[in-house]
Design a protein that fits this description.
This protein is of the alpha/beta class. 35% of the residues lie in helices and 24% in strands. The protein folds into 2 domains: 176 residues, 3-Layer(aba) Sandwich (Rossmann fold); 215 residues, 3-Layer(aba) Sandwich (Rossmann fold), CATH 3.40.50.10300. It has 13 helices and 20 strands. It is elongated.
């Protein structure tokens, strides 16, 4: 089973008696590591109150397209929520809601944001057995599956109406397991991935140093996404205040030289290397044993160049598939392409520094992926979601390259 740590789940509650289970479902989703926001239809409020769901989710409950609680400075609540979610889980999903989703209707907040999102959408049907077995409902389910919507359940058993048969919503624990499995793609199953993250710290004296601006959030998100994709993942991290991702082997370092050593100690069996870290390009030529006193008006600091970790990995004969990051202030694509060629890597993920609400310290980012096949633009989104998109593209390129090399080896034989 996968994990829901750091996943953003939008729980859509529609009208049905099974809505009473949603308070427990929300609590369990949060216990599994997810952040949960709740959207309720008008019919859903007849079965469970918005106040209850607000209390268990610790967020306002959204009910209307023009909802100030979602986007106080705009009238685009459905767009804000659609961008926020990693998964939209409609539970319970009534027969009426399935019909509307199958038809592409958008007559309330929930159906509108389901159309406006590129996140995964899943439904957990709950209805009377006759409604479930009705050919119209089955046709709607077939349409939903064709459109890539996951269908969880239903279960069979005694229903609120007193009848017995299919149509019961799955229990919260079952829904959580199925939701987690949606993120466990298996794209990198059987592979070993090394990710670097965060800044490095190059000491000047015991209290001062040179560093680069980096929170480590993107690198940690990439490591987490690699694990979700099935890879054995090693994260070589510079100094950050972030909690270590689950199921990741974290190696903590301070300086660029330490990061280089940690990477090369482990690179021999790696299939993919992703250099997200903002390692310092230079370090002081000499490090003072004692704190340097503030006596003179000026101070000259001699710097020497640090080793290029990314280029050193790319230069390994028959080495791993290598991905570098490039943070640029101008001419993003031009400089990133030059870095791709100069360092001999397989892919560069470039982001422009200085764009409001993206990049350093922010929870969001946007990337341009550049390789010898062209450019793929990944628009602004939460770094955890962006990391999963990045891993998907890395897996695609890795397997394409691996297939090509296998073909060439076969022809040489």
């Amino acid at each position: 089973m996968g994990t829901l740590t750091n996943k953003r789940i939008l729980l859509g509650i529609t009208g049905g008696i099974a809505a009473y289970k949603c308070a427990d479902l929300t609590r369990r989703l949060r216990d599994a590591g997810a952040e949960v926001r709740v959207v309720m239809t008008q019919a859903a409020t007849q079965f469970v109150t918005p106040l209850t769901m607000q209390t268990v989710s610790d967020h306002p409950v959204y009910q209307h397209v023009f909802d100030d609680a979602v986007a106080p400075d705009t009238t685009m609540a459905h767009i804000e929520l659609a961008r926020w979610a990693d998964l939209i889980l409609v539970a319970p999903a009534s027969a009426n809601s399935l019909a509307k989703l199958a038809q592409g209707r958008a007559d309330d907040l929930l159906t509108t944001l389901c159309l406006a999102t590129d996140a995964v959408v899943a439904v957990a049907p709950a209805m009377n057995r006759q409604m479930w077995q009705n050919p119209a409902t089955q046709d709607n389910l077939a349409a939903l599956r064709r459109n890539g919507i996951a269908v969880f359940g239903p279960a069979e058993g005694i229903q609120a109406c007193g009848e017995t048969g299919p149509g019961r919503m799955l229990e919260p624990a079952e829904l959580i397991a199925l939701a987690a499995d949606l993120f466990a793609t298996g794209l990198l199953s059987g592979l070993r991935v090394i990710v670097t993250a965060g800044p490095t710290w190059e000491s000047i004296d015991p209290v001062r140093g040179i560093t680069n601006r980096s929170s480590g959030k993107m690198g940690y998100a990439v490591a987490h996404a690699a694990v979700d994709a099935g890879a054995e993942t090693i994260l070589v991290s510079g100094p950050t205040h972030l909690d270590p991702p689950e199921r990741v082997d974290v190696v903590r370092v301070t300086s660029a030289q330490q990061m280089l050593a940690a990477v090369h100690d482990r690179i021999g069996e790696a299939d993919i290397f992703i250099g997200v870290a903002a390692a310092a390009d230079y370090r002081p030529a000499e490090v003072s044993v004692d704190k340097i006193k503030k006596d003179a008006e000026t101070m000259t600091l001699k710097l020497i160049r640090n080793p290029d970790i990314l280029a050193s990995v790319a230069a390994i004969p028959q080495g791993p598939f290598t991905v570098g990051f490039a943070a640029e202030t101008t001419d993003l694509i031009h400089h990133a392409r030059k870095k791709l060629e100069r360092k001999g890597v397989d892919m560069i993920a470039a982001n422009k520094v200085g764009v409001p609400e993206t990049g350093f310290d922010s929870d969001d980012n946007a990337l341009a992926l550049i390789d010898d096949q062209g450019i793929i633009e990944l628009p602004r989104m939460h770094k955890s979601r962006l990391a999963r998109r990045l891993i998907r593209e890395i897996a695609r390129s890795y397997h394409a390259k691996d297939s090509t090399e296998n073909t060439r080896r076969a022809h040489r034989r």
